[in-house]
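Input.
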Amino acid sequence: MARPRRSAADVPEIEEVEAEIQPMFSADAIRYGDLLFVSGCVPMDTDGKLVGDGDLEQQTRKVMENLETVLEAAGTDCSRILKTTVFMTDISRRKIPDAVRREYFQEHRPASTIVEVTALTAEGIEIEIEAIAALVSP
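Output.
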């Protein structure tokens, strides 16, 4: 059986979401239909300065704060996150960000992948988290 063709009217709009987080090249997030694709959040303040140099727990808290800021700008929160990808420079220390993330997610447990990388976007960054979240239909 042939699949019906979709018209341009059937395809959701792509909308850029901007939040008050560190400046970056990419969009803070992209909304596509009822999904929000959040760019990797790093432990930087709104001036682009590293927060928590040498302190993975403090860096993770800043990353989660930045993630929450993006989610709020899109009208959602951590309870609607479906999937996270965590990039770390030392995966043997994953229990530290796991504990911090539990504080933000509470009972909600999104699908998650943790990947060790050799470096992240700026010197001193030990963790970056990207996410996919569900949105309520407008």
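The chain has a mean pLDDT of 90.
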